[in-house]
Amino acid sequence: METYSPLPKYPTHVGIIMDGNGRWARQRGLPRLAGHRAGVENLRRVLRAAVELNVPILTLYAFSTENWSRPIEEVRGLLQLLDNALSKEVDEMHKNGVQLRHIGNLDPLSPSLQQKVLDAVKLTQHNRRLIANIAFNYGGRQEIVSAVQAIIRDGLKPEDINETVISNYLYTAELPDPELIIRTSGELRVSNFLIWQGAYTEYYVSPVYWPDFDKDEFYRALVSFSQRDRRFGGLHNPS
Ligand code: IPE
Ligand code: IPE
Ligand code: MG
Q1: Is the Cβ–Cβ distance between 63 and 76 less than 8 Å?
Q2: How far apart are CA 209 and CA 220, in angstroms?
Q3: Closest ligand 2 atom, CA of 17?
Q4: Which ligand is nearest to the CA of 134?
Q5: How far is Cα 206 from Cα 218, in angstroms, rounded to an integer?
Q6: How far is CA 32 from CA 20, 37, 162, 188, in A?
Q7: Is the entire prediction scored with pTM above 0.85?
Q8: Residues 6 or more apart whose Cβ sits within 8 Å of residue 32
Q9: How far is the CA of 195 from the centre of ligand 2 (A)?
Q10: Closest Cα partner for 59 from 180, 148, 169?
Q11: What one-character-per-residue DSSP string does 145-181 give?
Q12: Is 67 a catalytic residue?
């Protein structure tokens, strides 16, 4: 147990690649889905930690556009877990001031599951304590493709296009870019997460599997962030 001393700076928006559920389960001789279940249970703890650690916006990578290539039973299990979590957790999140959002493409989900997501977003839209943006069926490349399609559909001309316009056509249009992206389970990859928005993000890789990622680990990531010298291509102390 650590003490959580105040830090000189905090990120406003933190992305988390919630990785390692399968290995967490294997380590315990459990089926992969038991790891995903433990991963969903961990969300409550991490949302609480975000509030306590002064992080106002989280984007949580829950299911990628590439995750459809997993065995059908696992994909079905993950969809079922999303469905259950929406049934069981949303009221509590709403009470705790969490504003739920979704990024990604809902089209392949069943109409009833799509509706549940939209209902949760609507119910919580005025909450202000924490924005929890869930990336489900999200892929950074797919996001850019759909932004380009929408730009063409809207009839924009080449000279109208700039970085701000593209940012405003992404799913994250109303959110600032993440200053910090945390990946659990030690993997050193982006796996198609926020590839446009993450152009200048600081990365932190935690060795623990997602179900074990707790407030102490979160704080360690924030300490590391607070010590980074962010230069954005310039020089900090030009002499
Ligand atoms: C992350 O855990 C959850 C999803 C990608 C849905 P994994 O399922 O990728 O766990 P590992 O990487 O196999 O341990
Ligand atoms: C990234 O994890 C996607 C999510 C955490 C939802 P993966 O486990 O799918 O990524 P790879 O396959 O290791 O790149
Ligand atoms: Mg993984």
Answers
A1: no
A2: 15
A3: 5
A4: 2
A5: 9
A6: 10, 9, 43, 21
A7: yes
A8: 21, 22, 25, 26, 74
A9: 14
A10: 180
A11: HHHHHHHHHTT--GGG--HHHHHHTSTTTTSPPPSEE
A12: yes
Active-site entry in 21, 42, 54, 67: 67
- In order of their start, the domains of the chain are 13-139+178-226 (3.40.1180.10)
Ligand 1 touching residue 65 (CB < 6 A): no
Q: Identify whether the C-beta of residue 108 lies closer than 8 Å to the C-beta of residue 135.
A: no
Cα 79 to Cα 109: distance, rounded to the nearest angstrom: 8
- For 34, the token pair is 């038991």
Site to substitute for ligand 1 among 30, 76, 185, most atoms within 8 A of C-beta: 185
pLDDT in 10s for each residue of the chain, 239 residues: 578 999 999 999 999 999 999 999 999 999 999 999 999 999 999 999 999 999 999 999 999 999 999 999 999 999 999 999 999 999 999 999 999 999 999 999 999 999 999 999 999 999 999 999 999 999 999 999 999 999 999 999 999 999 999 999 999 999 999 999 999 999 999 999 999 999 999 999 999 999 999 999 999 999 999 999 999 999 977 66
At position 81, the amino acid (one-letter code) is: L
Identify which of 16, 17, 23, 212 to mutate to test ligand 1's pocket (most ligand atoms within 8 A of the CB): 23
- Find the residues whose C-beta lies inside 6 A of ligand 2: 17-19, 61-64, 67, 187, 189, 191
178: number of CA atoms within 13 Å, CB side? 29
Q: At 60, list the tokens.
A: 């949580």
Structural tokens at position 135: 């990336």
